[in-house]
From TrEMBL:
GO terms for cellular component: ATP-binding cassette (ABC) transporter complex. Belongs to the ABC transporter superfamily. Residues 1-228 form the ABC transporter domain. This is Energy-coupling factor transport system ATP-binding protein. Keywords: ATP-binding, Cell membrane, Membrane, Nucleotide-binding, Translocase, Transport. InterPro entries: AAA+_ATPase, ABC_transporter-like_ATP-bd, ABC_transporter-like_CS, ABC_transpr_CbiO/EcfA_su, ECF_ABC_transporter_ATP-bd, P-loop_NTPase. The keyword Nucleotide-binding applies. The keyword Ligase does not apply. It comes from Anaerovirgula multivorans. It is a peripheral membrane protein.
Length: 229
């Protein structure tokens, strides 16, 4: 939950201005708005990568300013606009097994989970490959797999369809559909109207550091706010 949050990179230029949004895990929420309106900034606030200057971000009951990024990662996963930024292991298999080793999981259990994940994300044939040599779509599937191995309750995706061909978009659609069925809340920042149209149950539009449209709020609210037609 975004509770009266304000954020600026430079003092004179607030990017997020006293914004409040309550997210629900049953939704596929799309966040839309022009370039530079603060969508990525909001996504980073939602997952604790950035901390609010004013207000608070509450993730599954916990204040993002008071818990570690590791603890947040178990509740909300964030897929970067450029997935390369979150890949670091020497091969695909270890990218997925490492977080489980850190958790202290048993070797057999790790193998089972990683192999299952490799199958779901169509990466089994690439398990020994150096991640940086993967294609854009493969890197994205690996980054998503690595986030989901933590079993977060929420997934926040920043422009996940950019650079994907039709077939890869369809693969992503199938994966997200499955996650939705599992009850994982999805928040997707995107300019891809067709993809949003296919999946989103809620669309939040940002401009000038504020929410200027939110169909869920309009559907649910008794007293209509300005942007509810
Ligand atoms: N690290 C940073 N330091 C300073 N300014 C930044 C930083 N990151 C983003 N900004 C500025 O904050 C504003 C919002 O950026 P943000 O990346 O959140 O926009 P966006 O809505 O995601 O845009 P896009 O659709 O192009 O991805 C922009 O004016 C950007 O230049
Ligand atoms: Mg962005």
């Amino acid at each position: 939950m975004i509770d009266h949050v304000s954020f600026a990179y430079k003092k004179q230029h607030p990017i997020i201005n006293n914004m409040s949004i309550e997210l629900f895990s049953e939704d596929f929420t799309a966040i839309v708005g022009a370039n530079g309106t603060g969508k990525t900034t909001l996504g980073k606030l939602m997952t604790g990568i950035l901390k609010p200057e004013k207000g608070s971000v509450i993730i599954d009951g916990l204040d993002s300013s008071k818990i570690s990024l590791g603890a947040i990662g178990k509740k909300a996963g964030y897929l970067f606009q450029n997935p390369e930024r979150q890949i670091f292991a020497p091969n695909v298999y270890e990218e997925l097994s490492f977080p489980l080793e850190v958790k202290g999981m048993k070797k057999e259990e790790i193998e089972r989970k990683v192999n299952e994940s490799l199958t779901i994300f169509q990466l089994t044939h690439l398990s020994k490959v150096f991640p940086f040599t993967l294609s854009q779509g493969e890197k994205q599937r690996l980054a998503l797999a690595a986030i989901l191995i933590n079993e977060p309750k929420f997934l926040i995706l920043d422009e996940p369809t950019t650079g994907l061909d039709i077939e890869r978009k369809n693969t992503l659609s199938t994966i997200l559909g499955r996650l939705k069925e599992k009850g994982i809340g999805i928040v997707m920042i995107s300019h891809d109207g067709a993809f949003i149209g296919k999946h989103a149950t809620r669309i939040i539009e940002l401009a000038g550091g504020e929410v200027i449209g939110d169909n869920k709020k309009c559907l649910g609210s008794k007293s209509k706010t300005d942007h509810c037609a």
